[in-house]
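FORM 7B - TANDEM STRUCTURE REPORT

SECTION 1: FIRST PROTEIN
SEQUENCE AND TOKENS:
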Amino acid sequence: MINKLDIFSLTTSLILEKAKNNINFNDATYPDILNEGKEESDIFPFMNKSAFAGWILFDTKSNLTFSKDYITNNIGDDYINGFSEFNLDEYFDFIFSSYSSIFTVEEIEGSYIYLRDLILNVKIKAYDSQHFINKEFNNYFLRVSKYQNEYVIVQINTSFNDDFKDFFIKDLRDYLNYEKINIKKFADMKSYLKENLINIFYVYGSSLSDYSTYVQERFDEDQENRFLNKAFSKEDKELFNKFSLSLSNSTKNFQLNRDEIMYYVSLIYDEYLKNNDLNYSSYKDLDFKKIYYELSLRGQFCNLSELNNSLMLFKNYYLYIKKYNKNFDDLPIKSIDKAIDNTFIYQNLLQNSIEGYFVDETLLDIIKNSYFEESKFINEFENFIDYIQYYYLYENKNGELSPAVVKSISKELGLKATKNVKNLREYHFPELMVFLKFAKIKNIISVEKENLFKHGLYELSSNAYKYLNLDYNEKLALWFSTLINKEFYRDMYSQNKIDKIKKFMIDLFVKIDENKLEKNYSYQGEYEPIIGILIDLGIFKDFDKLEFTNLGKKIFKYYNKLIPIKNIINIDFKK
């Protein structure tokens, strides 16, 4: 048979369930800390709305009239009359004397829980009518109350593990000490907890943030340690850590912090050494001349500064190792010296690569120092990435996107076809072909062969973050340097098609640059999407006014100085 404690507990849950969704918090009187026009969700991103509602309704004395009216109106006469044992005044006494504290579960005995209050340092036996407590967690931020000398759990604010408990309790004690609150000597600590619950919510949020950082740092340290165990011998790992510390604190011209050092160490290990069953302690088998050649060929350095920093890092590291490791072989130093002598070759390879994320720093400076509107093209490509993440993008057995997928994605991205045909193919949308090719060669997407479609399903690769982590200017520079490279168009168009587009674009660029474009200039419809790409990239102003933008003119002049106009979209730095 249901007893009064069950009724009080159930009533509280019903009130809080309604309050968290529909209570008008502007009707309540807030302490000064909240009178800033903020939403409660902005103030307490770490605490649920029920916990916040419980504080407003049950703990703030200034809200007493509001709270009684709210409770009465929301449980209604039918509810009250449904339980002969229910007395509203008794319930008010019960719920307004409730308080929240931090508890550890010591024992569970049926519907009764033996708890230790970690703030008040007392043990209580509480009735758990609704089975709030489970064995998954030992620690809870609970609201409890007392009726006829029997405690009952009426609300669970949150639960947490033992590690977080230590963070939270320490921060809470620091806060109480700051407020000069001596728990043992404080006359009515329960009243203090009620009135200051909102501040405890703040402490909880701060503790949770610190704990999340602590857990992430511990995870990162563990991951880094696992990586170093693979990348170095045991002896060299210790020397590497000492070298890394000395380089981070160096006052000389060459200095890198730990994150920068780990970036370069991970880059060469992941992109070359691991795949060749080598590590940094494989002295006799390390050929840095070959390593840097292959990485540069694949555009694995984002700029020339990265290339130079990487070379200098490993030159300094192996010189350091030479001092302390008696088994060290000079071969790595010799091969690094040869690699440094070939720096210009690596620069050319990087500039000519379309696979990686190398960005021409001069081009990047032009973009940074130019005023231009946000590129629609960059935004559309990121919409393309989103499409792959949330929808199926798959290819047929012939390696092309299926007509159904082409129709769907072109509609989603608002792309315009070169021809008005019934069965749309990917080659009817130059922009789609460019997006797809770019995503493939930059390893943003990969093809999953085994899937429910029984053919190639595109999915975002683990390397997609490399593109997404670039800033806006870097993305734009990467696109420009990729689109100007002739290698990008292989397998997209026939050589005749490329020559035809090239001739058209050269003619257009020259006429615009020399201000000789006819007033009634016209072009075939097949070129419209290509011009559209240049407009979306911010090179031309618009279709009605085919003129260079400020940015477009600077980029055209830069490339025209770099290579003859006749070779635009035909760069080959190896020649």
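SECTION 2: SECOND PROTEIN
SEQUENCE AND TOKENS:
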Amino acid sequence: MLDCWIRYKMSKIKSHLTFLFTTLRKFGFGESFIQWITTLYTSPRAAVITNGITSPSFTLHQGTRQGCPLSPSLFAIFIEPLAAAIRQNNKIKGIQVNNSQHKISLYADDLLLYLQTPSQSLNEAFNVINKFSKVSHYKINWNKSTILPLLGEDVDSAAHDPSLPLNTGNIKYLGISISPRLSELYNLNYASLLKKIEDDYKRWNKLPLTLIGRIATIKMKILPQINYLFSMIPITPTDYWFKKINSLTTHFYWKNKKPRIALTTLQNAKHLGGLEAPNFMHYYLANQLQYLYKWTQQQTHSDPWLDLEQYLCSPNSIADLPFLPQSIKKLDFYHNITIATTLSAWWKTNKITKSPQAPCRFTPIWHNPDLRLYNKPIHFPKWQQNGITHLHHVFENHKFMSFPSIVQKFGIGRDQFLHYQQLKFLIQSKITLTNTLQPSKISYKLLEIGNHPRKLISKLYSLITSSNPTITLPKGKWESDLMLSSDPDFWTQICRNTFSMTTNTNLQLIQYKTIHRIHITQSKLFKMKLSDTDICSQCTSGSTDTYLHATWLCQPVHSLWTTLTNTLSSILDCRVPLSPALCLLGDTSETSIPSKYKTPVLVSLAIAKKIIFQNWKSKSSCHFSHWTNLITEFILTEETIAHKKNNISAFKKTWNPLITFLQIQQLM
């Protein structure tokens, strides 16, 4: 039983270099390598840069050098003798799991001990640390160290030298508030983070950020904080927490105004009509699934937590838990919060991705609560010893194997025929003979990731979000207005064109808002009872001010489109049709525009839409001269970027026709 946590805060690194070099030799590093390190640390000098001003250099007398990429590795080597001494000291009792103990966690300058029998273990831990400090010149900041008793254990901190403050509430370790009472973890971490995020949103709301900029802000500033809690704390945030964070985020996206596009749409992939705004629920599931993924890896467990969870779920294999039915909730190991949280996230993922949980080739036979004999989960030890553990071992060509085949393949005795009949009956009562035993789509993709993948959380998040791809656009309205095809590939390409035409997020957002039809027309105001008429007041046609009219048919707007398409046709020496599908949606599929000119055309059309939306209430101000000014600014910016990327030849190939036209315009 674990009695207490002890958190030690190490003081500023003042390690003795002689001890470091001795440790390197002890761990078997070669003399050449040690000589390289010695060279780096022979009279090293450093300087401090503050607000662009560099201080005079000064000599570093001890410690590893800050900012040096080698320093973290050197420090890990330097501190390892202390960790080894604590692990090897039998008088210091830690968490016992089978035949091993877990006593210590080290991260940067934070040291955490997990101790039983604190009356004995504390004194011994102090002795080891003090001895290490004497030989290494490395110090513990006792004033920032603390003891956290667990399970009501009475710990006399004053009886030890040095005495440590006793904390009966909670301690903070690596940004996580830890309490001996699991019920407090939510309020200490998730609730407090929610309040901090709410305050951040209020401060940032006045910043002149676009919708794309606000989504980027969330990804850079908020998502890492949330993901850290998702990954570190084995509890599920409440439904209220997710609703609240989504509500706060939506208000931030739309500057506290009524949302024009649903949050679920913004969270969709870009090629499906979204902006890839983070889906916090999906990120929570991805963070939990990283542990389930590690369960399924058939390799020696290198992480102590895996050994601990395997011990807790014995006799079941931890790798089998994802393929067992939800009736395992009745088993004792499900009361463990870490296992229960991970499994609950897995079942929710199956529900979200519409991957029904059904028996498959990876479903275990033994200790499976669905396969019960005499009211107990079935288990034939001899069969298991001979390699029969999962359903795919007893199925062949989608049929249950015959007894002679099993005897021949696995070498079980012929005296096992009764067990064979019992097993066959139990399995066939759960699985139809036509079942191919293929795992669910989500299970298959999870196992497909492979060993030690990079960016595991991102891959799992993508796996969840891409499981049910649906284009979220007002397709019906566009198809009705422009008599377009309802082919999903057509709309996917429209979405791709939005973001591939340029890296300029301002123009991307203009095109994105256009295809989502978010602008308020006179017709919409009339339906909302905010206007007495739905007739367009910007022209003399007397037409209803629908979205198509406002962006295409209105006389001053249509005049701009006509002039622009004629001009582009002349500049590029190819036909740029006066088509709403091209001008509004960016559809180039029905045009003969050469591929090298598609970017100039789409950018030019996006700039025209920018002019229309800037003059939404005074469309008579939509002049072609505005377009020449804006396209000139855009090309100058692109030229600067091309110079920085050393890509000026590609820039000229794309933009030279328009540059020539604009130069002529300036001379006129």
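SECTION 3: OBSERVATIONS ON SECOND PROTEIN
The two ends are 88 Å apart (CA to CA).
The first strand starts at residue 4 and ends at 10.

SECTION 4: SIGNATURE
Preparer initials: ____
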